[in-house]
Automatic annotation (TrEMBL):
Protein name as annotated: Proton-coupled amino acid transporter 1-like
A molecular function GO annotation: L-alanine transmembrane transporter activity
One Pfam family from the record: Aa_trans
Transmembrane segments: 74-98, 139-158, 191-208, 215-235, 255-275, 287-311, 334-355, 367-390, 396-416, 428-453
Region described as Disordered: 1-33
Gene: slc36a1
């Protein structure tokens, strides 16, 4: 579920105290000193519990449903352990991002910094990088756009796959949910035609330019997704086979696919700073972060593990595609699909707010609305076209995760800490640790991207060869 936070909200925080290092604060003479967080205009904003809910929503989406396949690629033991390790590292990097933003906002006299702001000001701390600091913001915005539009591509594939399965199995759908037998489906249209069917409905949805008008739909979507997840967990927990005869470790060549899918699931890095900015008491955000992401990581590990155990080698790119062909679980697929449909607009909003304002500013007021709507149509069309080119849900998730999520969640935050504190008695072991995390993220970035593209090419070739044989 995507967060319904407005990424362009005005600043809420005034000066902050810093805790730049991991073990003790570093006192910078240029920093603004204060022992308490304060909020401009009083203590208004999200409460502790509301912030946790937003954090959960920002990290629970289609990536969660793909984790059983990720565990299959890593193995029954290696998969969950890798998810735990990746969760710890990802949350640590989120915390680094918050600490760096605190320190830089105080140093620059800014009440709030976005992810791009933090990287730009961090690069200004290094003399030979200061001239190119603007490129830091641009690179972050590029990865944010790739990530958010990548999510939108995944949503197109998810919607088409799940609705297609419901349509094709409608004639064999029963009220008996205890058996998950293989059924003879009635072939319908290609999944890519379903994507084209959804295209006009999604275009109409993104024409809603103010998020407040999406609040009622977002509320219903969140309820439907929550109900669906409860039923998915219930089915997985009550249908664990015995004995369990699955490999404890997967093939090494498949591990990059695990990495891409798993890091894609940790999709909340973009909401961390806006969430902290909107809290009534930002001093408690670290507690919110660790508690909320602890819950998220637990959900990831449990569903990934029990989903793989329940469906074994037959697990698919989304666990919803493995559910029994009974009306209850067919309804689950439709409910989750509705939630993803509404979530598309929320994820799309982030890229729209980055790309549309500069374009509108270059044209006159007479053409502003037309340019705005035209860009929205073009971006939706782009995500649909990319989804049609790669109609494999698991590979799209892995590719997006490897390319952009790894950069935003693992590579950039540790490097940002080095840029921010390298001239303030930064301990050597901290620098070594940051470089190590970034290198791990970079290796995952390269290997995951390469293997994902290789698999995409192989499957497309196989599909084309199969189509050619059928024509013959």
């Amino acid at each position: 579920m995507a967060s319904d936070i407005n990424y362009q909200d005005g600043p809420d925080l005034s000066r902050r105290d810093e805790s730049p290092a991991e073990d003790e604060p570093i006192h910078s003479p240029a920093s603004l000193r204060q022992t308490e967080y304060e909020r401009i205009g009083g203590r208004t904003g999200s409460s502790f519990s509301q912030t946790i809910i937003h954090l959960l929503k920002g990290n629970i989406g289609t990536g969660l449903l793909g984790l059983p396949l990720a565990v299959k690629n890593a193995g029954l033991v290696v998969g969950p352990l890798s998810l735990l390790a990746l969760g710890i590292v990802a949350v640590h990097c989120m915390n680094l991002l918050v600490k760096c933003a605190h320190h830089l906002s105080a140093k620059m006299g800014k009440p709030f910094l976005s992810y791009g702001d933090a990287v730009e000001y961090g690069m200004e701390n290094v003399s030979w990088l200061s001239r190119h600091s603007l490129w830091g913001r641009r690179v972050v915005n590029l990865f944010l756009n790739v990530t958010q539009l990548g999510f939108c591509c995944v949503y197109f594939v998810f919607l088409s796959d799940n609705v297609k399965q419901v349509v094709e199995t409608a004639n064999v759908t029963t009220v008996n949910c205890h058996n998950n037998e293989t059924a003879v489906i009635v072939p319908s249209y290609d999944s890519r035609l379903y994507m084209l069917f959804f295209l006009p409905f999604i275009i109409v949805l993104v024409f809603i330019r103010n998020l407040k008008y999406l609040v009622p739909l977002s509320f219903v979507a969140n309820i439907s997704m929550c109900v669906s997840l409860v039923l998915i967990y219930y089915y997985c927990l009550t249908n664990i086979p015995y004995p369990i005869n699955l490999p404890l470790a997967g093939r090494g060549v498949d591990y990059p696919l695990f990495f891409g899918t798993a890091i894609f699931a940790f999709e909340g890095i973009g909401v961390v700073l806006p969430l902290e900015n909107k809290m009534q008491n930002p001093r408690n955000f670290t507690t919110v972060l660790y508690l909320g992401m602890g819950i998220v990581t637990t959900l990831y590990i449990t569903l990934g593990t029990i989903g793989y155990i329940g469906f074994g080698e037959h697990i698919r790119g989304s666990i919803t595609l493995n559910l029994p062909l009974c009306w209850l679980y067919q309804t689950v697929k439709l409910l989750y699909s509705f939630g993803i449909y509404i979530t598309y607009a929320l994820q799309f909003y982030v890229s729209a707010e980055i790309l549309i304002p500069p374009a509108v500013a270059r044209c006159g007021p007479r053409w502003a609305l037309m340019v705005d709507l035209g860009i929205r149509v073009a971006l939706v069309g782009l995500t649909c076209a990319l989804a049609i080119l790669i109609p494999e849900l698991d590979l799209v998730i892995s590719l997006v995760g490897s390319v952009s999520s790894s950069a935003l969640a693992l590579i950039i935050p540790p490097l940002l800490q080095i840029l921010t504190f390298h001239n303030e008695d930064m301990k050597l072991w901290v620098m070594v640790k940051d470089i190590g995390i970034s290198l791990i993220g970079f290796v995952g970035f390269v290997a995951g991207t390469y293997i994902s593209i290789q698999e995409i090419v192989a499957r497309n070739s196989s599909r084309h060869n199969g189509t050619h044989l059928q024509l013959l």
